[in-house]
Amino acid sequence: MDADELTQSVWDITEGEFPDGSPLGEQAKFLLRYAILAPSSHNSQPWQFTIRDETIEIAFDKTRWLEVADQDKRELFISIGCALENLCTAAEHFEVGYEITYHTDEDDNLVSTVTLEPDSDPSSSRPSELFDELTERYTSHQLFEDQALPRETRDQFRRVIEWDSVTLSLIDDPEQKRSIGELQAEADEAQMADPTYRQELGYWVGTGALGSSWLMARLGQAVVSHFDLGEREGRKNSKLIECAPVVALLATQEDTATAQVKTGQVFERLALLASAEDFAVHPLSQILERPEMRTKLATRAGTGEEIPQHLFRLGYVEEERTHTPRWPLESVPLTNQ
Length: 337
What we know:
- By secondary structure, the chain is of the alpha+beta class.
- It is built from 9 helices and 9 strands.
- It has 2 domains: 3-137 and 323-336, putative nitroreductase (tm1586), domain 2 (NADH Oxidase); 151-193 and 228-315, NADH Oxidase.
- The protein is 39% helix and 16% strand.
């Protein structure tokens, strides 16, 4: 990966350039311009695509797997699910039908196949306004305002979840948030105390993938790689959780790759809906990267036997929306066959 290839220009997509009436392969390639705008852990963008006639195969790029932070590939599959959701949202907007096949072979990096069906009507629970948010959605790391999320917004969140196998908990009880915040601080300190974790995080900071200039990225890499900032990060992230109007948790009945891909789809749909409603989203993954703390999170969040998969903050904040850069589609592993 070359940091010089990272660009902000990929966010500027002209909707009217969709190749309506062109072969499905050309339409698929255009839809993938929206897929690559999906969020991913450390902005690692771990997806690769193969277009075969009317199908798009979505696989993961092992070189972009966070082997230290994400040893079980949970975040990798969630990231792939986010890209899949963007693809489907764009397909629906351009009235291209599709069918998704989830692949379960753990020895293969193929995650899902999307078969385009132009003669069928796409149908799902996605609100139509989500398409416009594909190029507007962003992640906020700021302290959120003390302003409750409206009940109708919470209800709409729950309505757009397509599968009974993925559940959403919206936590606003101060004591619960404080307890989860304490766990977040503990996770930050444990992760940052690990030199291999800091080296991996430093590498991604150094690529510029998080949006810093070349110089600041290199300085950030040096600081993160060589200094244990766990206590500072723990205090900061704990406060972010405790002060958020809502802490959201997605959980599943099974802890499989497919469940995690569907978790990513649900999260991205919620993030797009949040963007449409002008409130911000901020994922927090450190707790879930520690197996023993993931179990504690289930207890503190009250998920019962369901398995926590993705934790994030929701709330309002006054700030300019900024996007992290992306490798353009030409730089993403893409094969036409």
